[in-house]
Amino acid sequence: MFGIEYLAPPLRIARSARLWVRAQLRLRRFAAQMDARFRGDPRYQLDSVTCGVASRIDDSGDDTELLRRICAA
Prior knowledge:
Layout: H1 4-37, H2 46-52, H3 64-72
């Protein structure tokens, strides 16, 4: 009555879910290991990473003068 084509998608979904959970557990384990490894290091500040990837785009200014200098160069 039911063929393999009806069973394959749920099995793929279950496999994908298992792989996703496994990857999340690996990431958490890695983060915990790095926290333990660098706990005493004063350079290890996770907030610095957030600040480092913050957007630096400044939309408030006019770039006309900058474009003139670039064109003149």
